[in-house]
Amino acid sequence: MSSETAPAETAPADVIGSLVRQLTDELRQRMEVSAPGGLVNNGVVIGGQHLTAGGPEKDDPAPAHGPVRARDLAVRRRRFVRPAAFDAGLSVLETGVLLLAGAPGTGRFTTALNLLAEGHADPRLCQVDGAVDLARWQPSRDRVDGYLVMAPSRSLDLRPWELARLEDRLARAEARMVVVVPRSPGQSGPPRADFSAQVVHHEPPDSAAVFGAHLADLCPARDRRERLLRSLGAEFTSALLPAGLPPRYAARAAEAVVRLSAGGGASHAIVAADLARAEASALMARADGDPEVLSLVLALCVFGGLDRAVIEDRAGALLTLVSVERQRTDDGRSSTSAPADTGGSGRRPLPELFRSVGAGCGPPESGRSGGATGFFWPAVADGVWDAVCGEYAGLLPVLHAWLGGTGTDAEAVDRAGRAAARIAVRTGGRTLELLGGPALFTSPGSVLVAAHALGAATLDPASAESAYRVLRKWSEDPGTAPRTAVAYACRSGTGGLPAGRALVLLHRLTAGPYGGAALAPAVVDTVVERFATGGDADRTSIVHDLADWARGEDSAALVAALAVPALLEAGRDWFRARLLADRPTRECVGELVGHALDETAGHGPMRAALLAWCGEAARTGQGADALDELFGQLLETGRPGFLLLLLWFGRSEDTTPGKDLAERHLKTWRERTPALDTSTRHDG
Description:
It comes from Streptomyces lichenis. This is ATP-binding protein. The protein is of the alpha/beta class. Helix content is 56%, strand content 7%. It has 29 helices and 10 strands. The strands form 3 sheets. A 6-stranded mixed sheet has the order 3-5-6-7-4-8. Strands 1-2 form a two-stranded antiparallel ribbon. Strands 9-10 form a two-stranded antiparallel ribbon. Helix 5 (160-172) links the parallel strand 6 and strand 7 (176-182). Helix 16 packs across helix 17 and helix 23 runs parallel beside helix 26.
């Protein structure tokens, strides 16, 4: 191929000729010639060659061959930010050949071009086919200042004398060469020790500096740049230019700022949303037909920010489900159709996949196998969910089955549940039904995920009505799993159910035809959690509702008896204040404590809770008056469980906290009921 020449200016009348030249110029930019074993720059190809038209990525393009466009090179030089190893690269390049080792997507292509262009006002650079045998390769007869080889397949096999001959050929041609070699697991390893003097390791430059260089080129007027930066706000850099951000993302951010600020200034939120939409669209275009990319992107959307091992595990689980589903679909279409390509033995290295989808991994933390991993721009997940719910609806059943298999880790379960809720919001709540059924309720983790999803779905008006409908339906389901999911969905930490609606659902679970002791622990846990995290109004409502439950003859009465001791432990100060100031609540508290003491399952825990209260009062001198008020109420009601408590105190050691208080009330009891035979022993 000959070097590219600048297109001649055209007369206004030669419109068609101008268009043809522009299209030809654009096509030349996008074309790739593949000629394995050929000497492209000498015009010699030996079989296997083909032509591909496409647009490579700006930052680290797919291997191309032929002259580097002067216009593209000029732009890359203006916007270039020197990485730390640039000067070292220049020094090595003086020998004729530099091996630049770096990971894809780190700006190594742009760095290589600038290394070759350094010192030239009008450099002529050329890319060489990576499949070429550099031991036999010859420089072009035309003037070329530098050659760039991307992703070589054979160059690392050079022997020392072959490298020396290559350097000699380049010296005679007054040219230099940069060979960009990968540095990531699963690709060609580092160059052999014989080449150590030629190797320079490339690391990407600071993302904020890259952004600034692109912005300065796109918006030369300094005063306008300053206005744009002010409109973005102080949080822009930390949110959209995090540490480790690949250069191409910083470049996109600068382009978006200038484009969106055409009419003045664009806020940080507007730019972030625009970048996220574009990135999500590009990711889903790549994921279409590529199960590996699809699985990793969705795993990052759900579990982004967690340990990399978690994301890898969940991505692998989704890839398996997608593979099975695609195979089933293919079998349904034709018994002779070939299996869907799901990666299999040819799966790409995970670090490469993570970089390719715009995800970064932080340093490992104690107890973790890897660092926290997620999208550089977390808002990308919203765009992905929009695409999944709109264009990939057939994937939703598989996706919900995958979410249900998350496990029992609290943080992972919460992420999975909230992901299901986001899907529900985008589908008007229709997908919430996918959370249930015997096929999905296969583990405690699936129940917890369903609970988190339903609870979170109540927070958004778009899905709240459907979420409440499913909660009511499941609360009357004969199966234990869906009703357990309802119990946990009523927790305040799960979603947005008000305490009143949560208590109605919880009562329905225990008082309905399928209520029973099996569900009591889950309901008790939820009641206690709502009380512990609630404000004064919620706590008052819970105590009054439990008092109503205690008057029944169903499982709800048992739940009330089991919950009261835990409530007392969770909010002793609150109970102390209410016993002295709020008569309606004071009466409910006395009724509940007496009810718990009367129940066989509740007597022991209630006695332990009261004993702990007495111990605190003895140590601090606080709460004795509230205890005296509570014991007085219990004495008035004549509860048999309270009498057993007093007798237990009477038989206890003299050092037992609360013994004096109990003996005083026991004496009053005996004075009021002289015929009472208290000689009978009770174990309490």
